[in-house]
Amino acid sequence: MQRKFHQYILISSLSRCLTLEVNHKTEAMRSTCFVYLLHFVILALLSVSLVQAEDAYKYFTWTVTYGTLSPLGSPQQVILINGQFPGPQIDLVTNENVVLNLVNKLDQPFLLTWNGIKQRKNSWQDGVLGTNCPIPPNSNYTYKFQAKDQIGTYTYLPSTQLHKAAGGFGALNVYHRSVISVPYPYPDGDFTLLIGDWYKTSHKALAASLDSGKSLSFPDGLLINGQAHTTINGDQGKTYMIRISNVGMSTSINFRIQGHALKLVEVEGSHVIQNMYDSLDVHVGQSAAVLVTLNQSPKDYYIVASTRFSRRILTATAVLHYTNSHSPASGPLPSPPAYQYHWSLIQARSFRWNLTANAARPNPQGSYHYGKITPTKTIILANSAPLINGKQRYAVNKVSYVNPDTPLKLADYFNIPGIFSVNSIQSLPSNGPASVATSVLPTSLHDFIELVFQNNENSMQSWHLDGYDFWVVGYGFGQWIPAKRRNYNLVDALTRHTVQVYPNSWTTILVSLDNQGMWNLRSAIWERQYLGQQLYLRVWNNQRSLANEYNIPSNVLLCGKAVGHHL
């Protein structure tokens, strides 16, 4: 307001100067008018630069429908977005805003969540059942969010029911601003590969099986970009970025390209030390970007993804086609790693933060010395697979999560009692019987927490946290004890949003809770998430302020006990 008042005074003074006859102007008046004119020009230029500096908006309208495709050779019902399977790819630049109108033409309520987008101060747009009412059939909701201070390789996916088993997922890539450098030469092209296990059984039948207390069988196959076979074209001698995301339901994958090395450059928004790999393990929900130079003789080469740590190995192939090739891909497929969990853990430890590289902001990643911060709280979460009332469930610290009919975020905002309790789950493993509850862990805004995932089962785990990335400071076999802290990487651990935990092992992350909201911490293995292996972190400050969190959206959907409340 004060700046507008000064603008008004300046313009008024300049107008008076222009209306005076030249002969009536004194030398002093001419000098004064010149100063006004100079200030006006500067103000005009500044206004133009401010308008140009505003972060751009991108607008989308997506319609979600059923369709019939044959990803594994036989017709089945899939979920399409604007007729596409997988859904449309979103390409953004750091800080761009998304306004996306999602129209639900399914016969069930539906939501999308934005896997890895931090939703700064904006858990209202996170798209999970703890924050949002699902979009009813034949209705719509408009998401509004910003890729604030982020770059990297991400995905989106359905968070409702078992819709993910039918599709509805896609790629979301955030590119750097032109004023921010990247620690590698610009690639000659950019390809995204969405890889995941797949069932021929419909998502409704799979959900019914889980509801009856039965676990899911092993998947029927692997898909790359929704197909059993696909092709990437490139010119000999050029270097391409390949973005890899595991969008599957349950299985880790190994990715490799016949005759070509993979230079790892980015993991879920972190620029990493650029090591070379023959193959990469990518666990459920994770993403990574590699540079591949087409430096072999001109022919076609196999791109291979195969399941890891499974008795039955599923394999999907694609083709890397040199544009001057006259020979099809041939020879045996490149072999997967000969070793299992230990090999994978050693590879995971080799992923390190590039301390001197910028990410989305001009300051180097290493300028934040996370290892010198003393955690305010330690939380240990142990997963388990109990039977509750004779049915298979999955639990965290013996509590199996159930979704209430009212999103936790709305219950919190409107002070609706009886929806959740911050005493429903403990921050340490429990020896008591397993139970069901709507589990929420209370934390304070600006806490710096040490979070240990303890896996005492014989299967892989994969954990995802909405609203944040975190430093993965330690992996180890057996039981975590405080003495394990001696082996933490407190210098150059990478940040990411989804981390694996090996069987009968532990993984430790450090999280700076600088983003107020209600944030979902869940198993990325979708059967386990569906049957209760999740909870919410309530990151809170008692002073309601726009500096901490945005207001409730004017178009918010209300459901459950929130119906009838006024914004």
From TrEMBL:
- Residues in domain Plastocyanin-like? 64-177, 190-324, 405-543
UniProt keyword Chaperone, yes or no: no
Record keywords:
Glycoprotein, Membrane, Transmembrane, Transmembrane helix
Q: Which Pfam families match?
A: Cu-oxidase, Cu-oxidase_2, Cu-oxidase_3
Q: Which domain of life is it from?
A: Eukaryota
Transmembrane region(s): 33-51
Record bears the keyword Nucleotide-binding: no
Family as reported in the entry's similarity comment: Belongs to the multicopper oxidase family.
Among PANTHER family, the record links this protein to: MULTI-COPPER OXIDASE, OS07G0119400 PROTEIN
Protein name as catalogued = L-ascorbate oxidase
Give the species: Pisum sativum
